[in-house]
Amino acid sequence: MSFEWVPLTKDDVGVWAELLVAIDEVDQVGGRETAEALAEDLANPLLDPAEGTLGVWESGRLVAYGMTMSRAAADPVHRMSLWGGVHPEYRRRGLGGRLLEWAIGNTPVLHERRFPGRPLELHVEVDSRNEGLLALVTRAGMKPARWFYGMTLDLGGELPQAALPEGLQIITYRDDLEDAVREVRNRSFVDHWGSVEHTPESWRNNLVGVRAFRPEGSFVVLDASGECVGILLTHYFEADTEATGVREAWIQIIGTPREWRGRGVASALLAHALGEFRAQGYDTAGLGVDADNPTGALGVYTRAGFEIARRTADHGLSLVPAVA
Fold first, then answer.
1. What is the architecture, at CATH level 2, of domain 150-312?
2. What fold does the segment set 4-141 form as a domain?
3. Each residue of 237-262: pLDDT tens digit?
4. Greatest pairwise CA separation for the chain in angstroms
5. What is the value of pTM for the model shown?
6. Are 26 and 88 in contact, with CB atoms under 8 Å apart?
7. Are β-strands 248-255 and 284-290 bridged in parallel, bridged antiparallel, or unpaired?
8. Number of C-alpha atoms within 13 angstroms, CB side, residue 50?
9. Where are the domains of the chain?
10. Cα–Cα distance between 3 and 58 in angstroms, integer?
């Protein structure tokens, strides 16, 4: 049996989406995407489709894929991630290992073009239930760097109530707030592991300019002067609903600048959003959180009623060390 290894193109997004469905039917870790969303990924300026993607074909069938995308900044390290997967019928044939080898060899080339002279790490997210992937990255010398929880809340139950501090108000996201919201996100995540500042371009191409973004389910906290002091941005993934029948509002970002923490802003913002999600017809709300988040976010989510549904570990490998 011979395989063809070629970059992915916009003509492949339909079969690529079908491959993601086949993978998730067995792995049950999410990750399904519509063809339209995959086309957005290929058009992202941070991705080089010709050299940052690889499709594995057998007799005209896409059976595996890999994708590595640059980050908006390398501060202090350029952390590039490998996303990929192998069709369940084609596992244990070395395809996953070859995709990882490709990423290890190719990522430094892409990195050098964007951030020459800066340190580089390659990262892979491993679900705690995926023993095969864990063995694969371990053999390649990758080590766990950080742990994350995927959390969920049933919107059919009792929702939390939390009062907003006096002088603040919550409004629905508006396009004219885009730059101010991005600035709050950058300020809020400055002490988060692995986070880099979003540029206007990366913000639009990854957060508010994609099909998954739901402005009607995204909210901003303003102070008396009209300054943004808290944000919550929501994405909705149609492919997951098609698979499960469940409409989940995914909280992509929630943040408050350091000077506003500890005042109940995040709790009030979250409570408001959950009520709006239910009114908008969502069944559940979901989010991801760093298990060691220094801002106390895990406690905020737990008190609101979120429960851990998934555990993952981010495995990293240094490819270009920092210059001493």
1. 3-Layer(aba) Sandwich (3.40)
2. Aminopeptidase (3.40.630)
3. 999 999 899 999 999 999 999 999 88
4. 68
5. 0.92
6. yes
7. parallel
8. 1
9. 4-141, 150-312
10. 5
